[in-house]
Please model this.
Amino acid sequence: MKSLTAFWNILLKDMKNYYLKPPNISWGIIFPFAWMLMMFIRTKSAFNMLEVFPGIIAMSILFGTTSMLAVTITFERKSRSFERLLLAPISIELLVIAKISGAIIFGIFNSFIPVLISFFYFKVVVENFTALATGIILLSFVSTLLGLFISVAAKEVFEAQTYSNFFRFPMIFLCGLFVPIASLPLLIRPLSYLLPITYGVDILRFSVGQNNILAFGLNLLLLLAFCSLLFYLSIFNIKRKWIL
Model:
């Protein structure tokens, strides 16, 4: 019960204090929304919308979650409140789960806007709602953990955003969001398979009946493996920086 209370209080504090911070609004909401609006204006039919549907959702989640962690972790490092949380009588694993939960919720919320517009305006037909929901949730998890892994290394918000952009912008082109991986040069293509967002986008493509690279089950296993790896790498970095 004490652990549940601690989890809820940390999550509530993050949601209350950080959701409307300027970096979150600019990178987490305005940037993906502007890109989404550009793609919607460019798209003239439901068929064309189907091509960019997975990419718009993935980008909204990626920028929303990583921006959230860039704000929460760096602000708390600067005010030294993160160090105080580490002294609390809860496990580091529970602390990390509480810190990332708000960003995961933020990422899922960010995905609702392009999904609803695609459904009700462009009449996009989803063939597998389970795959769509799974892709959105797992993309939110893995993007959040990627943001946590990056943010732990930064001391200021602008540093965290800069480090995040170093990964985020290449992912737009390498992970099949808008450019099919098969269209990339052969030398660059292996990089796509080293990035977790690739497999989330592949699940979203599968959900709307597009050609996916790997089977749904394999994509699911790879995303879960990336989530586990990033989770424990982040915990290792936190212990190395603040505890060991």
Remarks:
- The two ends are 29 Å apart (CA to CA).
